Amino acid sequence: MKTLARKEPKITKKLIRDHGLTDGEHQKIIHLLKREPTFTELGIFSVMWSEHCSYKSSKVHLRKFPTKSEIVVQGPGENAGAIDIGDGLAAVFKMESHNHPSFIEPYQGAATGVGGILRDIFTMGARPVALLNSLRFGPLQLAKNRYLFEGVISGIADYGNCMGVPTVGGEIYFSECYNLNPLVNVFCLGILKKDAIFKGNASGIGNSVIYVGSKTGRDGIHGVTMASEEFGDGSEEKKPNVQVGDPFTEKLLLEACLEAMKKGLIVGIQDMGGAGLTSSSSEMAGRAGTGIEIDTSFVPTREEGMMPYEIMLSESQERMLIVAEKDKEREIFNTFKKWDLDAVKIGRVTGDCKLRIKHGKKIFAEIPVEALTEEAPVYERPIERPKTQDEINFLDINQLSIPDNLNDALIKLLSSPTIANKAWVYEQYDHMVRTNTILIPGSDAAVIRIKGTSKAIAITSDCNSRYCYLDPYKGGVIAVAEAARNLVCSGAKPLAITDCLNFGNPEKPEIMWQFEQSVKGISDACLALNTPVISGNVSFYNDTKGMSIYPTPVIGMVGLILSAEQYISQYFKDNGDIIVLLGENKEELGGSEYLKVMYDIEKGNPPEIDLNLEVKIHRTLLDANKLGLIKSAHDCSEGGLTVTLSESCISNKDRKIGAVIDLNEKMRTDALLFGETQSRIIITASSAKIDSLKNVFEGYKIPYTLIGKVSGERLIINNNGSKLIDISIDNLNNVWRDSIRNMMNKT
Amino acid sequence: MKFGILVFPGSNCDHDCYHVVRHVLNCEAEFVWHKEKELRGFDVIIIPGGFSYGDYLRTGAIAKFSPVMKAVKKFARNGGLIIGICNGFQILLEAGLLPGAVLRNKSLKFICKDIFIRVENNNTPFTNQCNDNKVLKLPIAHAEGSYFADPDTLSSLIKNQQIIFRYSDKSGNITDSANPNGSIENIAGICNKEGNILGMMPHPERCAEAILGNEDGKLIFKSIINFVKVL
Predict the structure, then answer these.
(1) Is B57 in contact with B17 (CB distance < 8 Å)?
(2) What's the CATH number where B112 sits?
């Protein structure tokens, strides 16, 4: 037996505080155990009751999410959610945050984020087939932000590339509110047979509990506790709390787990992510209504003399916990040995519903499982609309003069990093491995075909956090609506979402107001669009030195294309094609990228949204596409109509093409060109098919306008006969394509 | 005819190669675990891309010690066809089956994108279905693909027509701006003197189907099939 380095310390008030537990929570622990906890038990409670694991501040709100539809196979509560995609297959997906670790150590923080989300997917028995990420940084003008950006991108790239899972899409925004708190949200999707989903269940009393994967080290202890508090000046000192990723071991773990599952050797399985061995063992027992007994002296360790406390709390990466029948043990060991991985029996499933941690003969913890998984405190935190909200929402655009040269405004917008081309990023990601990527990064959504079927899946992630800051309810609605619109623009019917809710400190009533409003907005939009929430993650305490990020509820949405070849890309195809605007132009500038880039103003009200119209437009476009009438589709988002048109002209680098647009609108020209009115899509159709297309539109009674033609080598936009924009495609392309690359090469 | 596809710990284009051979070209295909000591019944061996052993040392530096590599050498000596793609190319270089080495990309970053290569020699088992100087569009996906050889090696490669592909622009011009990784002489793929072993950085298996928008990679596989069938 491995010897221990030292004795357990005494429980003191300071020790309890250092574990992030309040006096009330300490009292509750005593009540549940009917005694003072041991040091190991205190550690276990502190991670299981942390915000990150227990959702204690968010639970009451998350219950409002719609989580069911006819296609939901697995809703929230497991390692990931799953939906039925026909052909006997299910798609499993989830999104998770790795914000705090990525700020402290961008490369490893981001890399282990990818590792964690991959494990969540293959734990379910699915082979991961696509990764996406949703990232937020401070402006690239600051060297620190370039360092974080560069580190996060290479961390994501190195992990995903080595795993052989393509990173097919995502989104990146830049804003001052992320200067001291970047966001790294990672999404993974896997495919498996619908009747072969594995769950994190420790069922079958007497079954063996087997540890597989990397050895346990002292890294990442209290990672989840760190993720559950604000950062101050000394946050860099928390580097030891960040884990180190080893994608090669994870690749072996993936292949070995899938092989063991295929052979029918596994009863239940869960990855050791946040809170490591503690959360995997107690959650598996909790779901099955059993107990688990572990002898930590059997756990493979990287260092000598590790205490049970450290072993239970370590967040070393690339580890899984498996429950298996006794007679399958041998075959499991052999399977993992083939892949050169440790596989060790460390305990057994018991009937007493307790988590018992022994080291040799000595017992270090004995906790009723329910106390950890069901009895964690639930808080109805106070909610208050910020006093500054009215002032933030006040905007008199009549005070702002319209720029003389609107071409220059367009150039400025196209070169702003939030809008500019992201090839510098996605060319570092292997986005083609597995040979499913039909639509590579840079369109409205990523599209991957499902081998062995005629289908394809479209995936997108969306959130405009400026809208959420100005109006968290509307921002939540728009995040969902825009995600759905992006899928529809790719030819896919939206099916379900996962979310990653990034907010500030929930102990502040203003933050809880943002949270509550956003959740309400997301729920309402999901109901209207019939896209239930099937998995997700909450990341609170995104504050550094008292400054909170803008509320950033990121939506990851998945949709289905029945015939893969009917996918739609965003760029214009041929000279002479007719350009049609679905939806209507309105004079809305509040919260726009235009106001931020041109005037440094982040005020006003975000654009209005009518979910009934949104749904109708989606149906129209999908129907028209089924009839083969659509050649391209691109939704209007940041930068409005003109940026959308520009991107459709230039985003296919092998086939750049111009457009001539004639509008007849009465409103401020800058609002017309750059306002971000919702529910608008730019589509093209060949002139031969335009009459059939009009019939579809008339049938649905949706607003639409024929606004121009694909032609030439310039983008020209006229309104009521006067020329607003006239600029060469090459010029647009140059500023848009190389903006980020140029900023990053400066250093 | 039958393809063997080697699987090292960390190989990750093995499934893609299998898919193309089996489901696109309708040939037989079988995975070969790296601990196998014999290669029997195969006409062609593919060493696929990926990160064998994580590429934590030099790329391919550990994989060359796998038991299967002895069998690969024997297979090569007997005139069997071998194609190493990306990491497979790196392994062939480390194993000494092809001359030269690859260095980190000039940009020091991983690069995944479509590039163009010009076929420099179409009189090989791997390129016989390509016209002379045919330009192919293929994707690359690597961090270490900058091919390097000393002057003597280079001149013998040139003399023996062992340079099979060069990075070019769309029209087949060999230029600096068309060179994605800093490879010497824009080299994207070479073969051995005997002509039965090809190593290339671009991925033909990633562009062999219409649904993926590009079928140029199919020409490489068709050439191999044609060569073996004519034999």
Answers:
(1) no
(2) 3.40.50.880
